[in-house]
Specification:
single chain; mainly alpha; 2 domains; globular
Length: 327
């Protein structure tokens, strides 16, 4: 099943958007999207790509506590736009409209779960998975739909298990479902790879997750999502030499981004500091600490739970080995 928009000119615009998105250049992706919308204002795929670009950017920068509320508001408006459009559609156009609607609901549920809005996250996730399952019943070759089925269902189940530990684990089921999405068109195939890697990590299959991430980086050498995956796998496998190398790559990549990616800068530094201290390279650990702590980290990023935890470790390590206390 192919996506809407078959003219050669349209494909050029779409390829330009995809090229920028693969480079994680969201400003460029949005610029190409805006240009395409000037010519194809009613194209549903372009509507959805605007949503996908923003969702990807927010997850990349881990800025969901900062931008999540506005994202949800804009997503609700887009959902209404698709719902109005759906009333006049049939056949393939209707299928795609329902697919995009389901992914908007699922994308909202991810951001809501990230910001601990579990009630709305569960509601939207259930609706998204139900719609996508209905789509594949009549369109079993619609591989992109399996991404949402696997991802939304798994992460909601994972969230529920925090409160109800005896809920059945869905790791193996999610792995099988996400594997079906690997043959989908971009950007759904790459999203399936990233999601599959994290599910495999949760399942304990570090080797397979690392293999997928490593293969993807051969095509996109600077893609932060897959560098991050490999870095954490190396760290959790106690392969501190490789972890330090990949943490350094995260830091360098974060520094080259515009705007600077504070999430990867802090996380990469944490990996470098942890790896260096565990191999006795205290000077390297302190150098990594200093490279981060000399910067004026925005307050809103310091308050992101995962970054706050990593930053606390970096500060404590710096104090322990340098004797200099920082606020």
């Amino acid at each position: 099943m192919c996506f809407c928009g078959n003219s050669q000119d349209y494909k050029i615009y779409r390829d330009s958007i995809f090229s920028a998105l693969k480079r994680q250049n969201y400003l460029s992706a949005n610029a190409h999207l805006d240009a395409a919308l000037q010519i194809y204002p009613d194209n549903m795929e372009l509507w959805y790509l605007g949503f996908a670009i923003e969702q990807t950017r927010i997850l990349d920068y881990e800025s969901y506590f900062i931008e999540g509320s506005n994202f949800i508001s804009e997503s609700k408006n887009l959902k209404k736009k698709f719902e109005i459009k759906l009333k006049s559609l049939k056949d393939t156009d209707e299928v795609f409209c329902r697919f995009y609607l389901a992914n908007i609901l699922g994308g909202m549920s991810i951001i809501q779960a990230k910001t601990n809005d579990w009630v709305d996250a569960a509601k939207n996730s259930r609706q998204a998975v139900a719609e996508l399952k209905n789509l594949v019943k009549s369109n079993p070759d619609f591989s992109a739909a399996y991404l949402g089925i696997g991802m939304f269902d798994y992460y909601m189940n994972k969230g529920i298990k925090k409160f109800i530990p005896f809920v059945q684990d869905k790791s193996l089921e999610a792995i099988k479902t996400l594997q079906k999405a690997l043959s989908a068109d971009y950007p759904f195939n790459d999203a399936a790879k990233s999601s599959l890697c994290w599910v495999l990590i949760d399942y304990g299959n570090f080797r397979k997750a690392d293999s997928i991430a490593k293969a993807t980086l051969q095509a996109y050498p600077n893609h932060s999502a897959f560098i991050r995956i490999r870095a954490y796998i190396a760290l959790w496998s106690n392969n501190y030499t490789l972890a330090n190398e990949l943490g350094c790559a995260m830091v360098q990549n974060a520094e080259s981004r515009s705007p600077l990616n504070w999430s990867d800068l802090v996380s990469g530094t944490y990996i470098m500091v942890y790896s260096s201290t565990n191999t006795g390279n205290i000077e390297d650990a302190l150098a990594a600490c200093d490279n981060l702590l000399r910067r004026d980290i925005p307050k809103e990023f310091k308050e992101i739970p995962s970054l706050n935890k990593n930053l606390k470790y970096i500060l404590e390590t710096h104090e322990k080995y340098s004797g200099n206390k920082r606020k």
